[in-house]
Specification:
122 residues, mainly beta, four-stranded antiparallel sheet, 10 strands, 39% strand, globular, disordered C terminus
Length: 122
């Protein structure tokens, strides 16, 4: 990881994140697919911490992103996220509170290591 990526990751993971923001993480195992929509990522800045992520849009086109990339997934006509690799994909997302999706069904890995289907910080 380059120095600028490490700095951004530290900023996104800082324990004293202002109360106006919420943070969550998502891990996709190797070869996993996750249906999604733009609303789930509304207002979020998403950092790919590890792995390779394919983002498929409704028109069935897709783009591949790698560790260190920073995305605004809420602007895309999303259909699904895919992990085409042999390693897990780990995403960290931050957004202002109140910009939550209407259907929170992403699997979230909390900082304490437990997983649930809820949102962190809410």
């Amino acid at each position: 990881m380059r120095g600028d990526e490490r700095g951004l990751l530290e900023l996104l993971r800082r324990p004293d994140l202002p109360g106006a923001f919420e943070r969550w993480s998502l891990e996709l195992p190797p070869r996993a697919r996750q249906a999604t929509s733009p609303g789930e990522w509304a207002g979020a800045l998403v950092f790919i911490q590890t792995g390779m992520l394919e983002v498929e849009c409704r028109a069935r086109g897709y783009e591949t992103f790698v560790a260190g990339d920073l995305l605004a997934l809420g602007w895309l006509p999303l259909r699904q996220l895919r992990n085409p690799g042999d390693l897990p994909v780990r995403l960290i997302a931050v957004r202002r509170r109140g910009k939550r999706p209407t259907r929170p069904y992403l699997r979230v890995t909390r900082p304490d290591g437990f997983s649930d289907a809820g949102w962190i910080g809410g």
